[in-house]
Design goal:
The chain has about 675 residues and is of the alpha+beta class. It contains 16 helices and 23 strands. Helix 2 (about 30-45) packs antiparallel against helix 4 (about 115-120). The longest helix is centred in the middle third of the chain and has 40 residues, at about 425-465. The N and C termini lie far apart (about 105 Å).
Length: about 675
């Protein structure tokens, strides 16, 4: 005889604690309302009256607010919802199920028995008034449900009204959930249809479901008819040992939908994913013989029903599966890959034009704006080169750069394997692999060169734009041009060479020992100048900021270069350092020499007064500038776009370069490279 007698186990439920442990994301505030509508559909199924079923979702808004400042107040906020149906109602069996958390009363329909908890996550109070038929009579059951008081029921009463009817009122919409939900009747109706779409697609008979907001009434059947482009098509698929069903749906264009995959459980949408970027050519709207449409794939399976979370906001399915369960379990990535594959098959004939247009967009962008990818594009994944023709240049550049990086990473990995080979059984095969690798590496070198050349093209375009007259009749400040040549208030210890564009003036300026831009002479290690005029140089205006270069580390073969930049079309040059750019550049040169010129490492250069100087003045040849050139006895260039000469007293070569000449010369020096890449030179 056993020492213990078996007895029914009694477990007490703490409703407040159960609610606390129930999850409802803030973005899913309408989910309890939509689930209540699904309950009404199931109630009509149970009563076998789907064809005559009536479901109304009423929106309850706060009372009209007062008028302010002669303008109407914003749309009234939503305080709650009223869901009415003529289903089977809250008979004794359904009431017992309602009072039992995690009930399995409707488990065959995918119900988890926690739907009423969702009500109290988003609303303060739920009230039910249900007239139902039972044992040959009609009864009325009324009760309320709240977190504080649980279920509070009125006595069940006989009624003379022989009409089944249930009214659920959800009152006190939580502000946090309300702030993240849709507000208008049309938006709520569309979201409800999306949630219940599976019933419309699969069932030949669907009850009349309407959303009512004051005097506005919206029929879900009407929206469904307006949205559907053609009849849905379902296909069964197997993923490992599990059965799935994919339903392809075409929505009419203009219903503000994205091309998406919907994972469903128990007839409801649980998870949506956009798949446009995963299917080549699936962007914008696509067309068939009946017009334009957007695409959706609805995925159902007993596997999804079994693995949906109790709140139906997500699945307990990992993104990827480890090796231990890889033969049994299905991952989200496997489901997604299957959907993408079947979508490609289903839409193949419709995507050809989009794919062609997307490929042409990439080809045109590479040919005219991003030639660096030309030699690499053949190594990229072809499916990644079919883009939305409407993609911006910026996004397309980012997309191509990502593909470039992936190809480069694969090349580096391949290089390590090839350059450190194991004992090869087939030398000829190894030679072929090595040859292929070297060809790819060569393509990348061409890409780097193309990037360098196209960068020069861009800089020339920016320079040309900055020297044009502005809409207000004025011209750009010289600091904008200065920044193109080299960042201001920096020196060569702070700025990498590839951040400078000294080649605009002279390619030889790249070979320097020290370079400073917009820096006071006292801060430069190449001079110890302490002349009385130095404060003026330390406090120069933007229009008087020099670029100083001392090149050639070998002693004493050194040279000093001063570049002076003036505002386009400036026409106030006259005698004196403050107004004459030529005199100003020569005086800068003198001060560096007087401070006993040193190398960048601090070694004194002997006879610094004799160091040859080069002065470049970048400005437009306005009348006053031309006059100063003549006074310094400078010679016009053959194209009359500049002046040059030599000053014996300053031991300096002087070149005055107009902005037109600066642009034209840069174009001519780089023309051969631009032509090779197919870049315009005019």
């Amino acid at each position: 005889m056993s020492l213990y007698q078996s007895a029914p186990m009694s477990l007490h439920t703490n409703l407040a604690g159960r609610l606390r442990n129930t999850s409802l994301p803030k973005s899913h505030g309408l989910l309890p309302v939509f689930e209540a509508v699904v309950n009404s559909i199931q109630s009509l199924e149970e009563a076998d009256r789907l064809s005559t079923g009536q479901i109304t979702l009423g929106i309850v808004r706060n009372p009209q607010q007062q008028m302010h400042s002669g303008k109407e107040a914003e749309q009234e906020t939503i305080n709650g919802f009223i869901i009415t149906d003529n289903g089977v109602g809250f008979n004794d069996a359904n009431m017992t199920s309602f009072e039992t958390l995690d009930s399995d009363h409707k488990i065959d329909k995918g119900c988890r028995g926690i739907g009423r908890l969702m009500w109290l996550k988003a609303f303060d109070l739920a009230k039910v008034d249900s007239t139902f038929h039972q044992n040959g009579n009609f009864y009325q059951r009324q009760f309320s449900f709240s977190a504080q008081n649980g279920v509070q029921s009125e006595p069940v009463a006989d009624v003379s009204d022989k009409t089944a009817r249930t009214v659920l009122t959800l009152d006190g919409f939580d502000k946090t959930y309300y702030s993240s939900c849709r507000k208008t009747a049309s938006a709520i109706a569309e979201a409800l249809l999306e949630h219940c779409l599976w019933y419309f697609v699969r069932n030949p008979t669907i009850p009349c479901i309407v959303v009512k907001d004051g005097s506005e009434t919206i029929s879900l059947s009407t929206i469904f008819d307006q949205c559907m482009h053609s009849k849905a098509t379902s296909v069964p698929v197997k993923i490992k040992e599990h059965s799935f069903e994919l339903t392809h749906i075409k929505f009419r264009a203009g219903v503000n939908k994205n091309h998406s995959m919907f994972l469903c459980a128990a007839g409801r949408v649980v998870k949506e994913e956009f798949i446009s970027k995963k299917v080549p050519g699936l962007f914008g709207t696509i067309s068939d013989d009946d017009g334009k449409f957007t695409y959706a794939c609805y995925v159902t399976s007993p596997y999804l029903d079994e693995h949906v979370r109790s709140e139906r906001t997500a699945f307990n399915i990992p993104e990827k599966i480890d090796d231990l369960t890889s033969d049994i379990e299905v991952s989200l990535s496997e489901i997604r890959d299957t959907v993408v594959s079947k979508t490609k098959e289903y839409l193949s004939e419709y995507l050809q034009e989009n794919m062609k247009a997307g490929k042409e967009r990439v080809d045109a962008f590479v040919a005219h704006k991003a030639p660096r990818y030309r030699s690499i594009i053949s190594h990229m994944n072809a499916s990644e080169l079919t883009v939305d023709p409407g993609i911006s240049d910026k996004d397309l550049e980012l997309h191509l750069h990502k593909q470039y990086f992936e190809v480069e990473s694969a090349l580096l990995e391949e290089g390590h394997e090839i350059m450190n080979p194991v004992v090869e059984s087939n030398f000829e095969e190894y030679q072929n692999r090595l040859s292929d690798y070297l060809q790819k590496a060569n393509d990348f070198k061409q890409s780097d060169l193309a990037n360098y050349v196209s960068h020069r093209r861009t800089i020339i375009d920016l320079l040309e734009k900055n020297i044009e007259q502005l809409d207000n009749g004025k011209y750009a400040r010289e600091d904008l041009i200065h920044q193109l040549i080299m960042p201001m208030q920096k020196d060569s210890t702070q700025t990498p060479l590839d951040a400078c564009n000294l080649w605009l003036i002279d390619e030889r300026l790249a070979f320097h020992d020290y370079l400073a831009s917009d820096k006071p002479l006292t801060s430069m290690p190449i001079t110890g100048s302490e002349s009385g005029k130095e404060p003026d140089l330390c406090a120069l205006n933007v229009c008087d900021n020099p670029i100083l270069v001392s090149d050639k580390k070998s002693l004493p073969l050194a040279s000093i270069t001063v570049v002076e930049i003036k505002r386009p079309m400036r026409n106030d040059a006259k005698s004196g350092e403050e107004k004459d750019p030529i005199e100003q550049a020569l005086n800068y040169l003198d001060r560096v020499r007087e401070g006993q010129t040193k190398t960048a490492t601090g070694k004194l250069i002997p006879n610094s007064r004799d160091i040859p100087g080069f002065c470049y003045i970048i400005c437009d040849l306005t009348p006053t500038v031309v006059q100063r050139c003549r006074i310094f006895d400078l010679t016009p260039t053959h194209d009359h776009m500049g002046y040059f000469g030599y000053s014996k007293s300053y031991s300096a070569f002087i070149e005055v370069i107009s902005y037109n000449q600066l642009v034209q010369s840069a174009k001519e020096r780089n023309k051969a490279f631009f032509d090779k890449l197919g870049l315009p030179t005019t």
